C-alpha cells in the first residue's frame, strides 16, 4: 500500500484540517461556484475491499440526483457491475437515490458547510 493511501486512511478530512480552515474553504468555494455543492467523499474506515478515490473533494451541481452521483463514484472506483457500493451520508444516514444532491446537502450538511459522504461495500452491515 502506498504511504499516501495509508495516511489518508488514518486521518479523515475533518481531522486533517481545523474547523476554521474548512469553513473558509467552503466560503471560497460557494462564492466562486454558487450553484455547486462542496462534498467530501471518503472510504469507510474499516473498508478493506474497495480502493481509495484519487481525490476526496467534489463540486456537485444542486440538481444532480444522488443515484447519478453514485454512478459517478462507481466509475471513479472502477467497480464491476456485480460489486456493491453503499453511501452513508454524514456517517450514519442513507438517502433515497432519487433525491437531489441539493436536498441531501440542505438536510445533512455539516456545520463547516461540507456534505460528508462515506462509501463502503456491503460488509459494513455484517
TrEMBL record:
Recorded family membership: Belongs to the ATG8 family.
Keyword terms of this UniProt record: Autophagy, Cytoplasm, Cytoplasmic vesicle, Lipoprotein, Membrane
Keyword Lipoprotein: yes
Species this chain originates from: Anabarilius grahami (Kanglang fish)
Its membrane topology: Lipid-anchor
Main localisation: cytoplasm
Full protein name: Microtubule-associated proteins 1A/1B light chain 3C
GO CC aspect terms: autophagosome; cytoplasmic vesicle; endomembrane system
Lipid tethering residues (Phosphatidylserine amidated glycine): 126
Gene3D superfamilies reported for this sequence: Phosphatidylinositol 3-kinase Catalytic Subunit, Chain A, domain 1 (3.10.20.90)
GO annotation terms (biological process): macroautophagy; response to stress
Location in the cell: Cytoplasmic vesicle, Autophagosome; Endomembrane system
Lineage: Eukaryota, Metazoa, Chordata, Craniata, Vertebrata
Segments forming a coiled coil: none
Amino acid at each position: 500500500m502506498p504511504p499516501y493511501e495509508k495516511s489518508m486512511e488514518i486521518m479523515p478530512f475533518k481531522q486533517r484540517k481545523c474547523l476554521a480552515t474548512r469553513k473558509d474553504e467552503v466560503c471560497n468555494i460557494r462564492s466562486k461556484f454558487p450553484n455547486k455543492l462542496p462534498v467530501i467523499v471518503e472510504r469507510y474506515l474499516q473498508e478493506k475491499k474497495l480502493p481509495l478515490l484519487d481525490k476526496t473533494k467534489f463540486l456537485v451541481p444542486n440538481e444532480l440526483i444522488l443515484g447519478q452521483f453514485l454512478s459517478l463514484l462507481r466509475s471513479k472506483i472502477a467497480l464491476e457491475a456485480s460489486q456493491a457500493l453503499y453511501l452513508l451520508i454524514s456517517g450514519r444516514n442513507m438517502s433515497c437515490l432519487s433525491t437531489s444532491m441539493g436536498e441531501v446537502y440542505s438536510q445533512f450538511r455539516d456545520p463547516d458547510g461540507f456534505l460528508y459522504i462515506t462509501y463502503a461495500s456491503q460488509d459494513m452491515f455484517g
